[in-house]
Amino acid sequence: MAAMALAVSVGSVNITPAALWEVALGRGDALARTLVLELRVPRALSAFATGGLLALAGALMQVLLRNPLADPYVLGLSGGAAVGALAAMLAGLGGAVISGSAFAGAFLSTLLVFGLAHGTGSWTPSRLLLTGVVVAAGWGAVVTLMLAVSPVERLPGMLYWLMGDLSYAHTPGYPLVVLLGVCLLAFPLGRSLNVLARGALQAAALGVVVRPLEWTIYITASLLTAMAVTTAGSIGFVGLVVPHMLRLMLGNDQRLILPACALAGGTLLVLADTLARTIIAPEQLPVGVITALLGVPTFLYLLYRSR
To answer: Name one GO cellular component term (predicted).
Structure first.
């Protein structure tokens, strides 16, 4: 709540707490109401939803692979979603079609990674992780190719979107509903996820139906990533750093970690977007640049601390 209040108060035009209170009561001048209700509140809610979605997807992937370095971007989910969304943009489509294309790309990447990692036998977490890294590199090459053949007038917008852009994220309803739904789903699945984090064999011995649960995790992570990429473009390090930090602070109980990831990831991206809007105001920086500048040293410090 403090991060949201800061996000709607700070910007190229600052709004005092008294003026913000007047707007909350339905009063205040027209400029303050427009800034708060039509521009900053939808953008802040979109940032919160996107950060929560990315942190949840990262936490689920780390449980699935039992590897703290697992992340939707490392495993190619975001690359597939980005290719789907960019293809829709190149075709001149918009709105729900871009969202559907992003989810289709993420789900295609899911099937591709699982299929290649499975091969003729059963996949292992390390094999799936390596396959995801290779597929992510392939999606990166496809994105580069699409940018190279794109019309010149569309290129700046596509590049800015790929770096993470919340300028046009004014419909936070669907991402927030998905975020809330997955958080509610995490409670009944929390015990099974805790057991799965100890290994597939131990989970199977304790009565967990492992393979359907693994597919549920991967498809859910695909949905979360596609929704986040559609809302704000490619934003890295949120799904990697936030779950890792929370596990060091709170332990490994997924019934606690997953809702905490939703709150912490959303708060982090709200603060990062506020910084991106204000650091060189009235110009704006891509929020993905801010998360990378914050995430890289933070993660290196965490690795140093856990030697």
So the answer is: plasma membrane
Contacts of 244 (CB under 8 A, 6+ apart): 62, 68, 299, 302
CATH class of 2-305: mainly alpha
Collapsing DSSP to helix, strand or coil, 47 comes out as helix
Q: What dihedral do alpha carbons 110, 111, 112, 116 form, nearest 10°?
A: 110
Tell me the C-alpha distance between 282 and 3, whole Å.
20
The letter for the amino acid at 5 is: A
User: In one letter, which amino acid is 87?
Assistant: A
Q: Tokens 């007038």 correspond to what residue?
A: 153
The answer for 101, left when phi > 0, alpha when psi is -120 to 50, beta otherwise, is alpha
Amino acid at the residue 194: N
Distance CA 271, CA 294 (A): 11
CB-based contact 58:243 (threshold 8 Å): yes
Q: Average pLDDT, stretch 36-48?
A: 84
DSSP letter assigned to residue 196: H
Q: What angle do CA 186, 189, 191 make, to 5 degrees?
A: 115
What integer pLDDT is reported at residue 211 of this predicted model? Answer: 78
Q: How do the domains of the chain map onto residue ranges?
A: 2-305
What's the pLDDT band for 52 if we cut at 50, 70, 90?
very high
Q: Model pTM?
A: 0.84
- Statement: residue 119 has pLDDT above 70: no
Q: Is 256 exposed, middle or buried (0-12, 13-18, 19+ CB in 10 A)?
A: middle
DSSP 8-state symbol, 154: G
Residue 293, pLDDT above cutoff 70: yes
